[in-house]
Amino acid sequence: DAGVTQSPTHLIKTRGQQVTLRCSPKSGHDTVSWYQQALGQGPQFIFQYYEEEERQRGNFPDRFSGHQFPNYSSELNVNALLLGDSALYLCASSLRDSGLWEQYFGPGTRLTVT
Amino acid sequence: QKEVEQDPGPLSVPEGAIVSLNCTYSNSAFQYFMWYRQYSRKGPELLMYTYSSGNKEDGRFTAQVDKSSKYISLFIRDSQPSDSATYLCATYSGGYQKVTFGTGTKLQVIP
Q: Of A62, A105, A6, which is closest to residue B38 (Cα–Cα)?
């Protein structure tokens, strides 16, 4: 049973560029949440997708956008990258009927903005 | 004030010690309380979750929630070097609401 997978593993971008990160949820899961984890900090909630719609959003600017596909996989897009966007981006999947208390994380994508 | 406060440590203990990790939270709407373990450069791994107040035990791990004082604890018995990681507490009120994490406590268990 494949767990949550994310791609790419590492990414280096320049300020002002755009980036797309990808996530495939755990088999059977239908809800995907994205988090940003800065060094030495806990994960910060970006947004959550269920049934291809954004259901909840954290305190992140509109430069952060996402999408969920019919197969439940998801993308996170960040435009106009800033140095402060450098972080580990985590995707977590869960089953809507079970609730977010039982979500499973992928290994993350480490984004470095120079 | 952060919604969830957690001492970042680091916490260093000898092998076999009992470890106590703690968090406090401010939002009384939180109903679910989770503990995650995160190894260096890896994603968080769910250890256990608790609904409302009370205790929950899973092997060497015990989670405690005291909603009256808004205090969350994780106890690790007979700690092992493999327990060395960052431990994250998290809270959630249910439905479409977000999960809120603490900053994490870095634990080192010395052989």
A: A105
From the list B45, B92, B104, which residue is nearest A42 (CB)? B104
Q: Which of B4, B94, B98 sits opposite A58 (nearest CB)?
A: B98
pLDDT for A6-28, tens place per residue?
Answer: 999 999 999 999 999 999 999 99
Higher per-residue confidence, B89 vs A97: B89
Element (H, E) at B23: strand B19-25
Omega cis (within 30) before A61: no
Q: Convert the pLDDT of each residue in B41-55 to its tens digit.
A: 899 999 999 988 889
State residue A2 phi and psi, 5-degree precision. Answer: -70, 140
Tell me if B43 and A105 make a contact (CB, 8 A cut-off): yes
Give the three-class secondary structure for B6.
strand
Instruction: Answer whether B45 sits within 8 Å of A105, measured CB to CB.
Output: yes
By the 8 A CB rule, do B74 and B47 touch?
A: yes
